Amino acid sequence: MIIKDNTKLFHMPKKRRVAKRPQSTITAPPQTSYFTNLKYILTSPSAFFEATKGEGAWPSVRFWLITWLLVQAISFILTLPALIAVPDAVLLAYYKSAAVPELKGYLPTTALGAELASIAINLAALPLLIIVLIMAAAFLHLFVRLWGGTGGLVDTVSASFYAYAPTLPFTILITTLVTSIMLINPNWLIVEIFVLDFLSISVLGFLVILLLVWQLSIGVTGLSVRHAASKIRMFWAIFTASLVGMIIVLGVVAGIIFIVVLFAMILTGESAPSVLAELDISPAEQGTELLECTRQSPGNWCFTAEGMKYCGRKENCISALAFVRQDKLICEQLVSRGKDICLGTLAAAAKDTSLCPLAPSPDRCYDVFAGDTNDAAACGYIGDLYRRENCVAWFQPETALAYEDAVMNKNTALCDRLKGRTRDSCLANIGTALNDKSLCEASSNKDVCYDWYATDANDESTCDLIANDRLRADCHQWFE
């Protein structure tokens, strides 16, 4: 009998299990602090979106809300030194250059006040902004599904709101740069100067583009993970949604502008001339048809048209009548300045400068045309340098700002910041307010200043101080 030796079965060494090396994938637990989430989103977006699957929409909305509030607070704190240092005059010039409506008594008069008002408006609009962003995410979700996305609307909303994360670090960088520039040159706030500052706009433009690219990258990654689709498909989903959305928005804006312009044309008449603003317009009484401008009293001429009665100075009455009837022959009732204004009014209404060479003074006609059409290029037709510079000056925000500042404060010293006819008009305006025609003695063209004073102050006796025979006759004609 053979006995098997089984001792080896009991003494064979056991195989040792080798522990697997952990993978380097970073995981972010769903319930972590705001700054922990921010770090993972910026550094490992794929891992973050994987770890937060199924969390719902509220965490992402809450994250966006905290980020938005931090951006507002950090922007204010970092720009505070510059806001305090910006002169009030520069802020007013910014209002002019940025085409901010003149809401006198409502607009802040200091840069700090303007920033606080802006923050208050943003906070008031915050609920509406969140609703708009959710609607935009819902619109994007349609294209995500078209490009093969398999997730739900909550996944699209979540990816969209988390993509806002890079705004926080970029706010610190951009705001610091802007504050530094404003402290060095406060006038940089004015739009015209900003546009000419190529270096500043290039650097800021580059940073903004970089921010948008980073946000796009996070958004694409989030959609890709949450919808189990390739990043290429999700990129095209965002691209097509943005393109279609832009077309829709532009169409809506164009429609609104068209409706506003249409109603403005109906209510005020297309290309309504400045002479109409100088007239008293009221419903005409029955049986009082005045087919021509008729003198009702000294300095008051009237006509009726389409049930309305127009009354004012002779020059303005006849010019308005010519505009209403679109008949340049009516302008022949006037001479010199009156005819220039009449033909300029018709030229502006027709957007046709060819009428101005028919005027006794084509330069004055072009001046009226430029003002009524708000077309600075028309100033280039003016041959007289004195008048041309005045025409161009009124289209410059700093000129209008300086003029308004001088007139409001009734300070003739501030008029010295202006030149030519603009300065003369400034002196005449202040002289009228102070009832002091002697201020025209300091003007560069006393005759023009006296003419303005006479018409503004309704003082015909001032016309006799005008040395130029033609201008003096024009001045007296105004009071017929």
Structure commentary:
The chain is mainly α. The protein folds into 3 domains: 53-231, no CATH class; 274-387, no CATH class; 396-478, no CATH class. Helices cover 62% and strands 4% of the residues. The chain contains 21 helices and 4 strands. The chain has helices at residues 7-11, 34-43, 45-51, 58-85, 88-97, 111-124, 126-146, 153-162, 167-184, 191-196, 198-226, 231-268, 274-277, 314-325, 336-350, 362-373, 385-393, 397-409, 420-434, 446-457, 469-478, and strands spanning 280-283, 294-297, 300-305, 308-312. The chain has a 4-stranded antiparallel beta sheet with strand order 1-4-3-2, with helices on one face. Strand 2 and strand 3 form a beta hairpin. The longest helix is centred in the middle third of the chain and has 38 residues, at 231-268. It starts with 6 loop residues before the first helix and ends with a helix. Mean pLDDT is 78; it is low at 1-29, 95-105, 190-196 and 265-271.
Defining traits:
mainly alpha; disordered N terminus; 4 strands; 480 residues
Strand order of the largest sheet: 1-4-3-2
Structural class, by secondary structure, is: mainly alpha
Domain count: the total is: 3
Q: Could you name the ranges where pLDDT drops below 50 across 5 or more consecutive residues?
A: 1-29, 95-105, 190-196, 265-271
Tell me the number of strands. Answer: 4
Could you tell me how far the N terminus lies from the C terminus, measured between alpha carbons in angstroms? 153 Å
Mean pLDDT: 78
Share of residues in helices: 55-70%
Order of helices and strands: HHHHHHHHHHHHHEEEEHHHHHHHH
- Give the CA-based shape: elongated
| Number of H/I helices | 21
Strand content: under 5%
Main sheet summary: 4 strands, antiparallel
Give Rg in angstroms.
Answer: 35 Å
